[in-house]
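User: Show me a protein chain along with its predicted structure.
Assistant: Here is one chain, sequence first, then structure tokens.
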Amino acid sequence: MDKPLRYSIISLVIIGAAALGGRALYTAATGFIAAEEKKFDDKILVLQKQIAAISEAVQKITGENIKTALSLKEIQNRQNVRAKTQDELLTDAVGKVTPAVVSVVISKDVPELEVVYQNPFGDDPFFKNFNIQVPVYRQKGVKNQKVGGGSGFLITADGHILTNRHVVLDTAATYSVLLADGKQKPAKVIYKDADKDIAIIKIDGAGYKTVALGDSDKVLLGESVIAIGNALGEYSNSVSVGIISGLNRELDVTDPNTGKPEKLSGIFQTDTAINLGNSGGPLINMQGQAIGINVATVLGSQNVSFSIPLNSVKSILKRELDI
């Protein structure tokens, strides 16, 4: 056999062997892949059965399918987060405002009385010798004492305070301000509005913390609000929380000092607890901005109170204080 023919035969044998080996390898690989796919399918089937069992258990416990149950859980989680956020907003807002809220103390000279005994018949000679004496009060002088209280809040760093007119209406009284740090300073009434129940008083000093003035035109029905003030004229910086219950209300009120009737219009109604002594304090939003001046409450009601929208007095503040 010549050399070229021999090489050709050897080459054909090698190619044939390689082809047979490749086919065997392909067959083995295909079988391995099929076996693995079956194992995977079996695992998927097991998982599907487990999910179905869990779904059935959830259905029995909650009465809802698993998707609904998961949705309810997500809603609960979101509510918990929202509640925490509301608490943080509230405490942050109160923390911003309370250093600038003041108690307005109303003082007045009142008669100082003493008890003396007198003959009720005076100088009648018939009863002169009966020695009848009865106690009567007699004025021996005057003393200055607290006769009332209200609230207010600082709107400038140099001591201007916004309050209600009816809080500082008595021209015979003197006024002082109790600050959040416990210091008490005399106050002077510098402005009383003829139409709106607002007034501005001034204390000496500088560097006071102030309340940020918000936009009361953006207030929404149902919005959360906070009232801060001198509740009942005794408890300074009392905080109460509620919502805006009504917008653009009208109210006929009677001034507690003079008995004079007055009409309030365009005011907020709120279920925030506003007590006697809260008058003049701020109604604030959750951002710590004043959106109203607390003015009145309906005695005997279940938290029906009213506040003057801040935007209605901004023109006065601009004219009087240029703020």
